[in-house]
Each structure stands twice: as C-alpha cells, then as structure tokens.
C-alpha cells in the first residue's frame, strides 16, 4: 500500500501511479476551454453589433423535481465595453442565436426573464 508523505490515516487502497490518471472514470477533472464564435445581430436599435458566444447543453436539477435539459449561452463583448452574460433556455433545440434574440425581445418589451 502506498501512503502519501505527511498524511495521517488509512493507507490508500489503490496504488498511486500515473496510470490511474488515465482511467476513463477519472476524466471529470479535465475542463475544456470554451470555444467562442462570433455572432452579428441588431443590438437594441444601436445597429449591428458583434458578440462572441459559447453554447452547450446541461441538466438543470432541483431537489424534488426531475432533471430538466437546458441550453446555456455565454455572451461577451469583444470590445470589453459590456460585461459577459449567461442566458438559459429550457428548450435545448433552440439555437444560440434564437435564445439571444428571445432574451433581447423580452428585455425590449420590459418583461422579466
């Protein structure tokens, strides 16, 4: 059994080796860098604006309810004039552009998201 230096307690049941780091069930710790794409759209009547977007799907979970599939969209201003924003949709079939346009229309009409 291997024991890490200066660690008290029961020895590790699995030998510590670099081979263990390659096991498929240990890949959860690897985080991929998000890939942003450019999207140009009309922005609150100010004319066309280019945003950088990143999107993906996930499960939204709340205790006592079934998990709900969602699509998330991260937006950022390439010029850095506006803060990044996260937008979510409970319709994972929507494209990122549709989600941004829906959020844009909701904000223009004054409704809460």
Task: State the gist of this model.
Helices cover 12% and strands 29% of the residues. With 113 residues, the protein is α+β, with helices and mostly antiparallel strands. It has a four-stranded antiparallel beta sheet, covered by helices on one side.
List the main descriptive attributes of the protein structure presented here.
113 residues, alpha+beta, 4-stranded antiparallel sheet, 1 helix, 4 strands, 29% strand
Commentary on this structure:
12% of the residues lie in helices and 29% in strands. A four-stranded antiparallel beta sheet has the order 1-2-3-4, with helices on one face. It contains one helix and four strands, in the order E-E-E-E-H. The termini are far apart. It has a domain at 31-109.
- Strands across the major sheet, in which order? 1-2-3-4
Cα distance, first to last residue? Answer: 55 Å
Sketch the major β-sheet.
4 strands, antiparallel
- By secondary-structure content and strand pairing, the structural class works out as alpha+beta
Q: Which series of helices and strands comes N to C?
A: EEEEH
Estimate the helix proportion, in percent. Answer: 10-25%
Query: Mean of residue pLDDT?
Result: 77
Estimated share of beta-strand residues? 25-35%
Number of separate strands: 4
Shape: extended
Parts with pLDDT < 50 across at least 5 consecutive residues = none
Determine the number of helices (DSSP H or I, runs of at least 4 residues): 1
Q: Using only CA atoms, what is the Rg?
A: 22 Å
